[in-house]
Amino acid sequence: LELESSHPRREGIVVKFASVNSIEDAEKLRGCDLGVPRSEIRPLPEGEYYPFQLIGLRVVTSSGKYVGRLAEIMSSAGSDIYVVISESGESLIPAIEDVIKSIDLDKREMVVEEIEGLLTS
């Protein structure tokens, strides 16, 4: 579909597609996923990532201990929370500088600071 226009609303963004000209046609699209080809995604500033770039990353501590795979990103008022899953359980890791030490998309790896009580053993 070709995007004709868009504008923000309190509850989200309203979009108008060139080939959708009636409420009935628009209703047929309700609940559908909206995607953009990777080649058309706008680059983010250094140190910022799209969620799709992070999901599936291997998560290790700064000492090299395997924590798990990033499975989900939950949004909260203060910062995002990364849900990391391993065979031993689930770890909830705050997406803050004190905890997230590095993200290497080429290696598909995230390094986190090991803080007592934060990670599932």
How is the secondary structure organized here?
Blueprint: E1 3-9, E2 12-17, H1 23-27, H2 51-54, E3 58-61, E4 66-74, E5 81-86, E6 89-94, E7 100-104, E8 109-112
Order of helices and strands: EEHHEEEEEE
Strand order of the largest sheet: 6-5-4-3-8-7
Radius of gyration from the alpha-carbon trace, in angstroms = 19 Å
Which structural category do the helix and sheet elements fall into?
mainly beta
Sum up the overall morphology in one term.
Answer: elongated
Short synopsis of the structure:
By secondary structure, the chain is mostly beta strands. 7% of the residues lie in helices and 39% in strands.
How would you explain this protein's 3D organization?
- The chain has 121 residues and is mainly β.
- Helices cover 7% and strands 39% of the residues.
- The chain has helices spanning 23-27, 51-54; strands at 3-9, 12-17, 58-61, 66-74, 81-86, 89-94, 100-104, 109-112.
- Strands 6-5-4-3-8-7 form a 6-stranded mixed β-sheet, with no helix packed on it. Strands 1-2 form a two-stranded antiparallel sheet.
- Strand 3 (58-61) and strand 4 (66-74) form a beta hairpin.
- The radius of gyration is 19 Å and the shape is elongated.
- The model has no long low-confidence stretch (mean pLDDT 90).
Give the tags.
121 residues, mainly beta, six-stranded mixed beta sheet, two-stranded antiparallel ribbon, 2 helices, 8 strands, 39% strand, elongated
